[in-house]
Amino acid sequence: MNKLKPYKEILSYAIVMTVLLLLLRWLEFRFLILENQYEIYIGLISIFFLLFGIWLSNKVTKPKIKTIIIEKEVRVPTSDFMLNETELQQRNISKRELEVLTLMAQGLSNQEIAEQLFVSLNTIKTHSAKLFEKLEAKRRTQAIETAKKLQLLPPTLG
Asked: What is the rounded CA–CA span in Å between residue 116 and residue 113?
């Protein structure tokens, strides 16, 4: 305790100055709040509505995840592919239509098939329509799947 006696006056001044500084800061804060209370309240309300809007938009636009299980038969080729000539003749599919069907199975668009076979786009559309009719299909995927089942296309193609 004797060691603190010489510093007693300095410590008391430090404590008084600290209390006065805290009082000054408190008064400054009070003045700031009273002077700008409407702006502060408006700011707080706008922040609340901003956060509420973000939360609401996430709830409304959140995608619903659904799991769909698709089972498909996978055929493993056991030997070299043999074209089913009898089915080709029964369905009256021409060699050009078979070429178009093969290129469809490779994933080419009508325009790409037309460019590769050096014919017009309308010719390819006509061949496609006839193929769909002969294979009793409504879409390319159905036609290709039917052709594979009938052994008009190799099972590994596409």
From this structure: 5
Alpha carbon of 56 to those of 51, 52, 53, 65: distances in Å? 9, 6, 5, 19
Tell me the two tokens of residue 21: 């500084």
Q: What is the pLDDT of residues 76-135, one digit of tens each?
A: 555 577 788 888 888 888 889 989 998 999 889 999 999 988 899 999 999 999 999 998
CB 152 within 8 A of CB 98: yes
At 12-61, the pLDDT tens digits run: 888 989 998 898 888 777 777 777 777 877 888 899 889 988 888 888 88
Q: What is the amino acid identity at position 114?
A: A
Give the residue carrying structure tokens 């190799």: 154
* Residue 56 identity: L
3-class DSSP assignment, residue 150: coil
Burial of 16 per CB tally in 10 Å (0-12, 13-18, 19+): exposed
Quote the CA–CA distance of 133 and 91 in Å, as a whole number.
10
* Separation CA 91–CA 140 (nearest Å): 17
